[in-house]
Amino acid sequence: MLLAPYACQPALSRGRRVPEAPAPTRSEFQRDRDRIIHSTAFRRLVYKTQVFLNHEGDLFRTRLTHSLEVAQLGRSIARSLQLEEDLVETVALAHDLGHTAFGHVGQDVLNECMRDHGGFEHNLQSLRVVDQLEQRYPQFDGLNLCFESREGILKHCSRSNAERLELAEPGGVARRFLAGGQPSLEAQLCNLADEVAYNAHDVDDGVRSGLLTWEMLEQVPLVRRHLLATLDEYPGLAGKRLACEVIRRMLSAQVYDIIDATRAALRTADPQSADEVRKLPEPLVRFSGQMRTESTGLKRFLFANLYRHPQVLEKRARAEQVVRDLFAHYLAQPSDLPADFPGAETHPRRCADYLAGMTDRFALREHARITGTHIMDGL
């Protein structure tokens, strides 16, 4: 496919931290995508929680299925905007590699545990995974990805961590957090596709779990519009078919809105290269004003009615205890960490790296081994 001038061009990549000869049959971004797929961290995503713990049901999303959905949405939109699809897929598949077990609760608790040791950010951890923690190659630590892939993976970064990264890599992936620039359009697209994907699948999983009902969801304009249109066209539709059709329509509406709004922004800004995009004050990949309002309304509804549901919170409290207990144990017992686990700047950071890589079920089994108690049913 012919790429637009504002897309990232594989042949013009800023390159890898350790130079490598080009692959004979793959572009640089295709090579990065393949490295992600074959990584250990990517395989672990299948047993990491999105909202519902992995063992609570076979059909609930995990970090792996979420990442695949983000990649599918991202590639579809990228094709319409003439962006680099392989780079979009790479970033989408890698964006949650640094997420802990037990969803956002794991990240929150690990950040608390690391408060006096530099904190914990899952986006920064994803970068650590691909830069340092994966051990697959004899020549270097990590996966040695291209600058553009690493730039997209580092979605957010605190100023203190950005300053530390900038010292180690001047002008590198953290510069934009200090200078106020933007990432590539491909990275911007992954950020928005991530939001679209998790809003939609959390509605689906929430209804499937019984914690949300369509009557509750009718309060949300983005859902209500497509729910009523579906029932008007298919009176009496219910159950799985109703959920699939409503969510399909929601996804389509958001995808087409992003394409239209982004095309309008591109016409106004008229960037002629990926580097011109990086110098702009605001992202160009965006929702329209109305869709942004509706998406934000759905996020607020899900936070209040799903993420803060008593059943979810009850599991959250147990997950918090698991992470705290494990961190305290490894901090006090360094010899319990695997001998071949990669080193880090400090012992607490090495503990955090090890915990962040755990799947839900491995963390629960380790907790049971260490404490002698099974804190959560199902495993």
Oligomer: single chain
The shape is: globular
Question: Considering the protein shown, what is the CATH homologous superfamily?
Answer: Hypothetical protein af1432
For the sheet with most strands, the description reads: none
Helical fraction equals: 55-70%
Structural class computed from helices and strand pairing: mainly alpha
* Overall residue-averaged pLDDT value: 93
CATH topology: Hypothetical protein af1432
Radius of gyration: 21 Å
> Structurally, how many domains make up the residues?
1
Distance between the termini: 47 Å
Tell me the total number of β-strands: 0
Pick out its properties.
mainly alpha, 379 residues, Hypothetical protein af1432, 18 helices, globular
Structure overview:
Keywords: Hydrolase. Mean pLDDT is 93; it is low at 54-58. It contains 18 helices and no strands. The longest helix has 31 residues, at 239-269. The protein is mostly helical. The protein has helices at 28-37, 40-44, 63-81, 85-94, 103-113, 122-133, 147-153, 159-168, 175-179, 185-209, 214-217, 221-233, 239-269, 274-278, 289-307, 310-332, 347-357, 360-371.
